[in-house]
Each structure stands twice: as structure tokens, then as C-alpha cells.
Amino acid sequence: MTLTYEKRDGVAYITLANPDKANILDKATSDAISEAWTDLWEDRAIRCAILTGEGNRHFCGGHNLAPLPGLTEDDREYLRTQRIFWPLAGTVHGQRTGVDGRMGDHYPRVWKPVIAAVNGWAAGAGLYILLASTDIRIASAEHARFKFALTSQGWLGHGPGASLLIKQLRYIDAMKMLLTDEPIDAGEALRVGLINEVVPHAKLMERAEAVARQICKMPPVAVRMMKEFVVRFGDMPTDQAWHVQNLINSLLIQVTLDGHEGRQAFNEKRPPNFTGTLRRRGEPWDEPEGERAQRLNDAYRSGEY
Fold first, then answer.
1. Which residues contact 43 (CB under 8 A, 6 or more apart)?
2. Which residues, in sequence order, are CB contacts of 295 under 8 Å at separation 6+?
3. Measuring CA to CA, which residue among 145, 153, 115 is closest to residue 127?
4. What is the pTM assigned to this prediction?
């Protein structure tokens, strides 16, 4: 087994578990992680996920670059060219689409928070999955290393690493990683904004779980829709993004109980109990008339409601 998948108390744990081969994304691992993404997305009891690697050398060392037996270099070149112009149906650049039809099975964005516990090298596809599929990143001070790993082989890469680096980092920091292909350690990754925190290796999972537990206390529908809002609409002009945000917020207030629970708990000075419960559609309001209409109009114009 090259991947383990567990669920405990609202948190899904995805562990790349092939340390003898750098926890690479070979075919079996890619298929298994695709199933894990789909399961955690569809299981409403799961509120967030932690992605890590087994051991203390590699988070994920990249793809398995070994070809199938019997393929010549000419065969491989032909298939790579075919993938550009005639990709298979249901794929993104030759990779199957599962939970996220835009990014393929390897690099999906599920609308639930994903925390990376970077235990070692994140190189090639290991860096890509970090950039594409994780939202909060905590790294081992002793062992985490980060490397684009393709430019020095004469490639730009089939994965989205370069595209995501230039969106997530400052131009000069992204370009240094891309043009020199030199690895960076956890301290430098923190400085350039690639990760959130650096902790001693012995505390890595403890810290990731602490963050996961905090997320589990949050209103689940609002959290998942916040992530979708940022990913889908964050690049829009501010006035347009704000409009979408306001529409989503109104939808949350109207059709879930969590917004009401949050305000009520605050007023009652107690911890909230967020469940993500959905409201049933109700009867229409009677149109206000007379004194009530005037009172509501005055309140509406005041903004104090």
C-alpha cells in the first residue's frame, strides 16, 4: 500500500506511504489519492484534511518517471505529443478528472480546508500538489525542502507548478525558484510565503492537528464556501468579487442555521455549536402595509438591522 487514508473526529488523514521510493506519485498512489479526495469531499462529517508523507526524508519526491516496459523513446515522444492535441475525454492534460474537473485527479481543489504537514522534500509533483491542493502549510524545520525540479531537466513541467508559483509568490521569489531550480529549506520557504509555519519535526503532526481541530470548531458550510469563493472568484475585480461574496453570505444566512447559531451564541456568551444544518424553504412574507411598512422602510434606510 502506497497511501494510507484514515478519518478521525472530522479530520481526514492522507499519508503518502512509499518512503523507500520518495513517496512518489506512481499510478497506484495517484489512483488512491484520487479516491481519497473524492471521499473526503462527499463525506459531510469530514471538515478538513491533513496531507503528509511517511518518514522524515520525503513529503513527495514527484512523479514516477519510469516508462512502461516495452515503450521506446520514440513511442513516449509520440504519446506525449498526442496528449497535447488529442487528450482523452474526461482528462485534464491527460490526467483523469475526478473531484475537480479543472485540475485533474493529481492536483484538485476540494472545497474543504487541506493542511499540509511537510515532513521532507516536496519536489516536482510534490511541490505541485502542495501548491494546488493545500491551503495551510506547516513544515518540518529539520527535513522540509522545496524544489521545482523540472527546469534543470530542460522542462517547464506538465503539472501546474510554474503557473501556481507565480500566482502565490512574489515575482522575484518565484522566478528564483523557477530559473535556478535550486532547493530552498523551510526557513526560506517561510520567508517567501510558500508555507505558514516552521516547527520542530517532532511537533509537526501535533501542530497540524491543532490547526485541524480549530477548523473543526468553525461553521462547516461557511468554511467550505469561503474556500470556494477565494479560489473561484478571488482574481476578479474587487467590486465584482465583493458582490459575489455578498450573495454567498446572504445565501448562508437564509438557508443554513449556522449564521443564526453564531450570533445567538455570541449574545448568550457561550461556545457555538456549528452543525451545517440546512433550513427548509418557508412561506413568503406578507407584504408590509401602513405603519409597519413605514417603520420597516425607516429601519432599512438607517442600515441598523
1. 7, 12
2. none
3. 145
4. 0.89
Contact 131, 105 (CB under 8 A): no
Q: What is the pLDDT of residue 65?
A: 63
> Which residues lie closer than 8 Å to 303 by C-beta, 6 or more apart?
none
Q: At what angle do helices 220-233 and 238-255 cross, to 10 degrees?
A: 160
Strands 145-147 and 184-185 come out as antiparallel
Rounded CA gap, 112 and 226, in Å?
9
Which of the residues in the chain have pLDDT under 70? 65-67
Closest Cα to residue 110, out of 46, 167, 170?
46
Question: In whole angstroms, what is the distance from residue 237 CA to residue 228 CA?
Answer: 16
Which stretches does DSSP call E strand in 26-96?
Answer: 48-53, 58-60, 91-92, 95-96
For residues 132 and 155, the answer to whether their CB atoms sit within 8 Å is no
Contacts of 101 (CB under 8 A, 6+ apart): 92
- H or E stretch at 121: strand 121-123
Question: Is residue 261 helix, strand or coil?
Answer: helix
pLDDT per residue as tens digits for the range 228-244: 999 999 999 999 999 99
> Grid coordinates in use for 242?
465583493
Q: How far apart are CA 118 and CA 2, in angstroms?
A: 17
Q: Which CATH class is domain 3-216?
A: alpha beta
pLDDT of res. 66: 67
Domain ranges of the chain: 3-216, 220-302
Tell me the pLDDT tens digit for each residue of 54-79. 999 999 998 876 667 888 888 888 88
Say how many C-beta atoms besides its own lie within 10 A of residue 253's C-beta: 15
